[in-house]
Amino acid sequence: MDQPNGNGQAAAPALSKNARKKLLKQQRLESRKAERKAAEKERKQQAAERRRREWDEKLAAAASEEERARLIESRRETRRERMEKRSEEREIKIGRLRRAAEVGQRVVVDLEFAHLMTPNEIHSLVQQIMYCYAVNGRCASPAHLWLTGCSGEMETQLQRLPGFDKWIIEMESRPYIEALHDNKENLVYLTADAETILDELDPKKIYIIGGLVDRNRWKGITMKKANDQGIQSAKLPIANYLKMSSSQILTVNQVVEILLKYLETRDWKSAFFQVIPPRKRGEAEEVIEDEETIDAAEIERVEDEAKGEDVDDENVRLQKKQCVREAGPEGIEDESAEDSVRTVAASVDEAVDFEGNMQTKEATSGLRE
């Protein structure tokens, strides 16, 4: 029983040794994150001040008003060219995505598990979806992405993403089993509990990735769902090509990217090695006897895991911002507007583990090794 403190109230129970260690590690992670954000803000301010100073000095050194006018016009022309290039790239991307909506491999993210998640967990999954869209948009042959069962808090948080209303993606409030009832025989749920190993992607099939931030609270739920609905299930052949080390978890966007890489290369091994971070891989083998795999998309919450890594890499942050920009508003007309979009990355700051593959916070599909 807790002993009362001086105010006659029961004192909080003492933390165990492991709990204290986890708390201290969490506090260190939060402290380092705050320091990084402050340092990044300071760096941006200094860089902006330096650019303004250099520009002012350049104008002041102009020999005449005509030369000043030429410098100003040259700067405007450079900005126009940059925006025209971005606009052209954007139009090409839109064309690819529209074609994918007609002939691309269909990939569904099942969002029907929102009622099992907290708002913060839903937020983590929403960030995963944003990265999926950005990666898909960069592909030469993108997939046709679907979001099904999208309603309530899940839909609300998605609508908050910058530019979401302009995404070229299928969004259904109905479950996939209803929205795609005419193709029920072609539905394939990716789950680690499946007996069938996915040897190749069939363009006629529709592959489903479960979106569930469960931290292993709901093991086997996706397999049970597939069985109850009478649809096919399969697991990715990861164990045929590599052993997994450290955390046995993949993200939703990593699974989508693996599928996209396979569509590009028709080589599972290449897809796995290009997407799965090196720290999660063991030695590659041609055949591994253990046939358990990690499929679709479980990820760890970085700040919650006492085992977590604190990634402090400028390239990681740059990739994160690039992803936010690519999934964000279309038609940015000036640098100040672009900077305002980049600030959205602050809401994704906890999603720090990219390692070149944009791994974010937890968004699981109940697929594990």
Automatic annotation (TrEMBL):
Regions of compositional bias (Basic and acidic residues) in chain numbering: 27-61, 304-328
Keyword Methyltransferase (UniProt): yes
Keyword set, alphabetical order: Methyltransferase, S-adenosyl-L-methionine, Transferase
Catalytic activity: guanosine(9) in tRNA + S-adenosyl-L-methionine = N(1)-methylguanosine(9) in tRNA + S-adenosyl-L-homocysteine + H(+)
Region span, Disordered: 1-61, 304-341
GO molecular function, one term: tRNA binding
Database matches in PROSITE patterns: SAM_MT_TRM10
PANTHER family the UniProt entry points to: TRNA (GUANINE-9-) METHYLTRANSFERASE, TRNA METHYLTRANSFERASE 10 HOMOLOG A
Protein name: tRNA (guanine(9)-N(1))-methyltransferase
Organism: Phoenix dactylifera (Date palm)
